[in-house]
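Sequence of Phospholipid-transporting ATPase (Oryzias sinensis).
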Amino acid sequence: MTWRSPLALLRDAVLSQKAREKELRSLVSNLPFEGLGKSKQPNRFFKPNAIKTNKYTPLFFIPMNLYEQFHRLANVYFVGLAILNFIPVVNAFQPEVALIPICVIMFLTALKDGWEDFRRYQSDKKLNNMPCLIYSRAAKHYIERRWKDVRVGDFVKVVCNETVPADLLLLHTSDPNNVCHIETSNLDGETNLKQRNALPGLCTSLNVKRFLTFSRNREKPDKEKTGAGIESLLLRGCTVRNTEHAIGFVVYAGHETKSMLNNNGPRYKRSKLERRLNVDVFFCVLLLFIMCLIGSLGHYLWLKNLSDVPSFLVSDSKGHLDSPSLSSFYMFFTMIILLQILIPISLYVSVELVKIGQIFFILTDVDLYDEETDSRVQCRSLNITEDLGQIEYIFSDKTGTLTENKMVFRRCSIMGKDYPHKENANHLALLEETESEENVIFSQSSLSSQASRFDEDSSPVDTHRHGSRHRSKMAVNRQSSMAFSSPLETQVIPDEKLLQQISRSERSSSGISDPYMDFFLALAICNSVVVSMATTQRQRSLSVLAKRTGSFWKVFDSPKQNGSSTSAHKRSDDANGVQPRALDPMTLSARPAAASGDVCYEAESPDEAALVYAAKTYGFTLLARTPNSVTVRVPSGEELVFEVLDTLAFDSNRKRMSVLVRHPITGEYVLYTKGADYAIMELLGTPYAGDGQQKKIAADTQYHLDCYAKDGLRTLCITKKIVSSREYQSWLADRKKALAAIDGREELMMASAVQLETELTMLGATGIEDRLQESVPDTITALREAGIKVWVLTGDKPETALNIGYACRLLEEGDLVINMTSVVFQVTCVSILDCTLEEVRRYHEDPRNVDTTQKISLMIDGDTLAIALSPDLQDRFLELAKRCRSVLCCRVTPLQKSRVVKLVRDKLKVMTLAVGDGANDVNMIQVADVGIGISGQEGMQAVMASDFAITRFKHLKKLLLVHGHWCHTRLANMIIYFFYKNAAYVNLLFWYQFYCGFSGTAMIDYWLMIFFNLFFTSTPPIMFGIMDKDVSAEMLMGVPELYRTGQGSGEYNFRTFWISMLDAFYQSLVCFFVPYLAYQGSDVDIFTFGTPLNTSSLFIILLHLGIEIKSWTVVHWIIMLGSVALYFIVTLAYSAICVTCNPPSNPYWILQNQMADPMFYLICIISTVVFVIKNQKKVSNVIMLPLQIFCWGFFNSFFFCIFLNFYSTLFAFLIFVFFMLKKHLHTRVSSYQKNTGDQKL
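Predicted 3D structure, token representation.
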């Protein structure tokens, strides 16, 4: 390796950064520089293809992990206290002991982080060493290398069913039309095929010298620039399908590829309970500061009141003692070290363990398992499970979320005449009855970037069918290989009148120019459907294995076939002229896939497939599709090959898709357009120019569209336009400029599309049914009874949305529906809001309506919503919306969906949940407090962006009402118990300071103090947080109102926190003063006093948890009894073997002596009885019954007054303890003599 100066390395680093930051990337082929050193490579400034997602290395793991862990303030706090304990003047106990708890916590965290990072390292290593083919100039053919060897500027060959190693600019494919099909399931979960085209403008005879430089555009030999967009880019992680091989030029590699740039790691959401927890930890810190301040002040006063210097105060080397003020200052830090366990160090780890256990029970819930798709609920976010129990607002998509996204062709309108397809409706009803016997083989589809999402933005979801488990699994397995449709969607019974009309049109003199013929030609042509054979499997062809390495020159010198002839007869004679683009490479030389009638369509959305199958029913069969042509067989049997001049793809702004073709018979330029009615009607030319007949057709079609929408059907308008040759040439020039543009390319392409889509002629409209999912109305009803407000945000037109709203019980017949649609002016919107709010306020102010709820619902469209979301109207809109039972937003965009969710979340300060199934729901899902994705048939974008994933909307009911309630109550009660446990224990040390001169002395051995929180009392609350059930699942499902207990502040709030802290103070008083009064005046040593105190505190703390447990199981019994047994075993062993573990104190044989003394048992029983009687109203579990009976029978004569008043109960017990223990110890005390070498009270 050549040595380079640090200055040269710094220079290269700066140049690399500048090269990567340039908007325009200029690339040079690596072939002429093959074999040269790295410093002479032209593309050396760009990142290599090797990726590294792990954070640590073996050498720097410890310092880097410590750095990461010290980002948590809790770790810094406890490490700081441990270090502080090493200072002699402030240490409370052995310095090494103070490090043990935090070291254990950080060690376990480091193990977890190391294991996760090691798994990432293994994944990176496997990925970087995957094989690929790179062209070598020296070898003059492709050689096998590794992914990590790929560099920007290389030529890479990808064969069928292999994964693309880097972002490639597609130059050539084995397909005659230079088309490559890819599958993006590794990126977004979509299994449908997408088409990519080789860079246009390249000659097949170009040699390597022509491929030396690239930018975002490419110059032809005549210096004309050719643009390159996403349609010519193969992204890293995609899989090549149904194409023998593809050759590309590496433009982005490694961490600069799109897939790696989008991989930002998991999103972190903080739950509402966690935010509350952090506030209470701050209160604990404040409480600790006050207690330490009291200890410091008490130590100062104690030293001030000493008449002479006691012998136990040790002076320094010069014989001087610290002043009381300085000693009290030191004592403040000593008290912090002593009382530090008031801050629960193990709470955060316990919370994580509890959440993992809760997620396990959610994942294993059989009711959340979908047998048809063989899938279950997914928990993609581990830290917000408890938020499921506090949801107040749900924002739901409609298509694919409330509905099945199973598109069924129901009716159509052509030239102003409605064709209801009654026979088809009867056939569909029959299929629905026998659907459970059908095989489920509908494909998963993809992004909404193409056509036919006009009535609503794309919203993919699973096809929900009923069938046997065996057949369902077969169908799911086949989804990854081919795309099909079920009989419900493919079998359309034609309308008799429409069939007769088509027959007449076919025999008429107008022939193919008849509007009825044009209508079905538009259905067959204006889409992005790929034709495939039902038997084609996505598997590697044998020929590919034999051709892994081929000549670079042969690839680019191979001749292409012309695929854009305008002659229909020539195309019918030339079998190679029309090739089905989704065929396996072994069948590329065959005739079109549909020639035999065994044709299947892979659509990017199910409604596209439904329209193509409807056209096929009437004899207009889509046979093949290439980038330059579409082959359609008409009812006469003739195959027409339409030359595709351009495709204006669907986008969310235009809400339409257009295909410009040359008619094979007339030679006319024909533009077929389909889209949403409101986007199409304003583009019609002739109907509003004075032509009475065309105007009537448009009016009748609009009437039919409204009727379809009222029936809940998704509607599309179909139009046609004849483009003159002159207009086409003018438009083509602008289009080419837009395609070749670098800056503002998208805007220019949008403008060119809008320029052509004018003066359209109405052909007709279609109505497609999208049925509701199973149990959607019951689920919405239950959610509303649970106090959750449901909003539906959809892109459908108002009539369709209103129909679905009533069908799913979002709206009810008795509701007053406020209609805020078609509002254009802000003044009108303000007037409606003010008037409605005034009526609502007047209703609530009426004394007759005190105990009633006004049934108000709101329906608003996207245009009105844009006005209502303006800053000056937001508050009024929210004031009205929060008084409504439900809100229905129609014609809204994905951006508006996210804005609505964010506005409600931030302004109303409520917990929000968003549920959707498609790419248009991603923003909404990410903005909400809890995002739920529905894994559907059009990809996994929503699932990949969500916190939880389900397969059916009905699963939301149990996920929230049962698991959400359980997760919240369990975790809330566990956190409250943790604060109580630590506060009760640390106060024992605090009360002792009043009797030891606030000297920071502990009456419990330091090791036992550590073991108390680390082992003896750590597992029971964790199991309590995982397994406790305050209410059964059946009760929660049957009484949804129980869910309301978790809404708002929930069970864990300011009040419950401070009540538990006061309870801890009281119980620490009982636990401390019972042994104190028992041993008062005796000469027992410090650990003899502390051991029964420690034991009784264990019983009380565990007994408190036993009272809180609502449903006892065998696991609870084992853990609780095991904790007690572990305490005695460890303490007995420690007392037996530890002679001088904690000098100068001596814990040797302490517990053994205590267990031989009846006083030990009496103290433990009395302390526990006081606790039990104080909490006797809560004691309803079987575990407490024997103890209550025993205690009541034993102390009946003394404690009858305990049921009258709490304070009198405490006083009576203290009197009883005092006199009983005084009498018992009198003889022992008088016989003892003082021994100054012993530690005494």
